[in-house]
């Protein structure tokens, strides 16, 4: 900061008197200047162009979706009748959509918790798994684990889905191959994705597999940001590893955990690509069907765009409720009272 | 001579407290940690290795034994996947669309973030919150109307249309991330540039943009991964257009029920996975750095 100021003075040189009173923010000075071509073209291009694209392709469709959701529009016919909340009534009495919503709720409860706990454990092992004497240290070769763990995040989700679809294959898949070679012959041709008892669990495993590494890296960064003295103080006070993790690490990276929870929850409410790749038909007995799949099918196969838009609105409301809940729970459990560094 | 001895002594002194004797507890914790992490690494690597190995096998070999090495390394699986299944052209389409969307969104995003962060004017806060809204709403909600927007402006099922939509949906994240970056650059620098006679345009391109390079690199990496992985947008608004990689891969896997060519399918997956994996291994330091940067803001 100081070096920059010195530089300004040097640049200002003789005219330094003009520069010195920088107590008033320079933004106010700007306002009074007359509009020049430079300035006008600058604003038009710098703000107008990105905003135009954003409004046309993102905001406008979002707004339209609310409107469509109140009509019986089929998409290809010109007639569009306003039918009020009829679409919503239809959705909430539709067993298949309710089943899909139930599956989404299942995902939203379990996916974030499992992913975050596992990645927190791995991140803790990597950062403070070393010697308990002297400086706080991570495990040896921990960077190898970090690099490897991140692999799945770089793989397109559709490729992850196809790959795991083959791994779960009843007859030629890797999983049953490993299990039978370990002597578990009952898995010789077990269809993990074809049995409604395991389809959802197997699918969740794939999603967790894809994201643990990303959150592990995120948490490692968070833990590394905690000053080492805090850990050392705790150690001197006689706190063991587990105690340190629970009383120091977790409270101090609380914001990271909240962010992770929200991201993962939004993903769980969508989950389209994984479901489409692993069980495009919704799984046995609709056991892996999610709302987004139902939306896609309703819109682009059945051509019921009004109804599909209503599904989109339900999905959006669910996302907002979920984010609100996470913030609320975090606040109620004292999230804002904690020391932040 | 004496200095050498002294330095050796220093070294010994210096090293001793850093290398304390491992207690039994440490060894146990270390061993358990290494075991857990090794098991996890195997869970990550084995599926990838298996996919890679299977991409050289025939379908019957794959079904005979999941572990056996291929009897001969069949590159014809790759040839079939690349040309007959069209993975090659999908790959090229993806490179074109993602590449141009990335360049456009970085330039436009940086411009927009710069204006929002450095100028106070009527509505600047509102625009910023409008951008944030785009981050929180599920992309699914927009898909149906977007289909008709694209149809009306004649860009449905075209690569330029896809590129523009990618730009639109990557914009909020880019602006949000770069906003704090431009906000933190000292105002004195803008003043110095203005005193030196630089206009608004020159100040941005010659002074501010180069200073934001670390932020730009992080956002570019994230946008690249996000856009390269994008599946829903192309499937919804580019269903009949020239396919991009994720879309083509899904279509190829979808056909598999009729014509069983698992070797080629594994080859197609490998072609999709390996280039990004290699790029990641080369740039993993920057990427892991940007994960921490992106979340501390």
TrEMBL record, chain A:
Transmembrane segments: 40-63, 105-126, 147-167, 199-221, 260-277, 305-329
Residue ranges of every copy of the ABC transmembrane type-1 domain listed in the record: 101-326
Keywords assigned by UniProt, alphabetized: Cell membrane, Membrane, Transmembrane, Transmembrane helix, Transport
UniProt subcellular location: Cell membrane
Listed InterPro entries: ABC_transporter_permease, MetI-like, MetI-like_sf
Zinc is among the record's keywords: no
Membrane disposition: Multi-pass membrane protein
Pfam families: BPD_transp_1
Family: Belongs to the binding-protein-dependent transport system permease family.
Entry protein name: Carbohydrate ABC transporter permease
Protein's organism: Arthrobacter ramosus
Automatic annotation (TrEMBL), chain B:
InterPro entries, sorted: MetI-like (IPR000515), MetI-like_sf (IPR035906)
Family: Belongs to the binding-protein-dependent transport system permease family.
Domain ABC transmembrane type-1: 91-283
Stored Pfam families: BPD_transp_1
Top-level division of the source organism's lineage: Bacteria
Localization terms from the record: Cell membrane
Regions that span the bilayer: 28-50, 90-116, 128-150, 162-182, 216-237, 257-283
Protein topology in the membrane: Multi-pass membrane protein
Keywords, in A-Z order: Cell membrane, Membrane, Transmembrane, Transmembrane helix, Transport
Name of the protein in its database record: Carbohydrate ABC transporter permease
């Amino acid at each position: 900061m100081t070096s920059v100021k010195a530089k300004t003075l040097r640049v200002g040189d003789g005219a330094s008197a003009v520069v010195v009173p920088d107590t008033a923010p320079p933004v106010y000075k700007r306002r009074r200047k007359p509009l020049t071509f430079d300035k006008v073209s600058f604003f038009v291009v710098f703000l107008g162009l990105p905003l135009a694209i954003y409004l046309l392709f993102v905001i406008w469709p979002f707004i339209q979706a609310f409107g469509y959701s109140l009509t019986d529009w089929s998409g290809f016919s010109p007639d569009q009748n306003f039918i009020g909340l009829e679409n919503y009534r239809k959705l909430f009495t539709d067993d298949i959509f309710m089943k899909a919503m139930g599956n989404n709720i299942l995902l939203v409860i379990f996916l974030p918790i499992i992913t975050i706990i596992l990645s927190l454990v791995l991140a803790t092992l990597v950062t403070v798994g070393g010697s308990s004497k002297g400086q706080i240290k991570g495990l040896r070769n921990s960077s190898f684990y970090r690099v490897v763990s991140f692999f799945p995040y770089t793989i397109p989700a559709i490729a992850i889905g196809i790959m795991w679809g083959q791994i779960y294959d009843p007859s030629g898949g890797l999983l049953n191959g490993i299990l039978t070679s370990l002597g578990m012959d009952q898995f010789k041709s077990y269809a993990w994705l074809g049995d409604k008892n395991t389809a959802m669990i197997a699918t969740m495993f794939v999603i967790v597999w894809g994201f643990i590494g990303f959150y592990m890296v995120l948490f490692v960064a968070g833990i590394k940001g905690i000053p080492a003295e805090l850990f050392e103080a705790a150690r001197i006070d006689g706190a063991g590893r587990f105690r340190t993790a629970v009383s120091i690490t977790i409270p101090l990276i609380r914001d990271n955990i909240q962010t992770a929870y929200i991201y993962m929850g939004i993903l769980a409410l969508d989950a389209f690509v994984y479901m489409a790749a692993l069980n495009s038909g919704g799984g046995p007995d609709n056991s892996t069907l999610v709302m987004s799949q139902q939306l896609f099918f309703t819109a682009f196969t059945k051509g019921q765009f009004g109804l599909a838009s209503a599904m989109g609105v339900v999905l959006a409301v669910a996302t907002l409720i979920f984010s609100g809940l996470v913030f609320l729970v975090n606040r109620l459990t004292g999230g804002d009272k904690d020391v932040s560094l | 001579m004496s200095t050498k001895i002294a330095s050796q002594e220093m070294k010994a002194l210096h090293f001793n407290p850093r290398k304390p004797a491992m207690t039994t507890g440490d060894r146990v914790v270390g061993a358990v940690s290494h075991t857990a992490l090794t098991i996890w690494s195997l869970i990550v690597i084995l599926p990838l290795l298996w996919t890679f190995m299977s991409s050289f096998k025939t379908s019957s070999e794959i079904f005979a034994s999941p572990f056996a090495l291929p009897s001969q390394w069949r590159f014809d699986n790759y040839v079939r996947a690349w040309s007959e299944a069209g993975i090659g052209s999908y790959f090229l389409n993806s490179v074109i669309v993602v590449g141009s969307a990335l360049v456009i969104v970085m330039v436009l995003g940086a411009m927009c973030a710069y204006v929002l962060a450095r100028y106070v004017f009527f509505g600047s806060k509102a625009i910023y919150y409008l951008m944030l809204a785009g981050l929180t709403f599920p992309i699914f909600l927009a898909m149906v109307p977007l289909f008709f927007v694209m149809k009306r402006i004649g860009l449905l099922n075209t690569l330029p249309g896809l590129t523009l939509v990618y730009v639109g949906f990557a914009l909020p994240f880019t602006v949000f991330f770069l906003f704090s970056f431009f906000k933190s650059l000292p105002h004195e620098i803008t003043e110095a540039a203005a005193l030196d006679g630089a206009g608004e345009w020159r100040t941005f391109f010659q002074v501010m943009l180069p200073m934001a390079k670390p932020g730009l690199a992080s956002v570019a990496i994230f946008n690249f991964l996000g856009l390269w992985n994008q599946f829903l947008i192309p499937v919804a608004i580019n269903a009949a257009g020239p396919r991009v990689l994720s879309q083509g891969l899904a279509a190829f896997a979808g056909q598999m029920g009729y014509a069983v060519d698992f070797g080629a399918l594994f080859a197609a997956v490998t072609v999709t996975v390996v280039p990004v994996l290699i790029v990641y291994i080369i740039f993993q330091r920057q990427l892991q750095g940007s994960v921490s940067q992106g979340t501390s803001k």
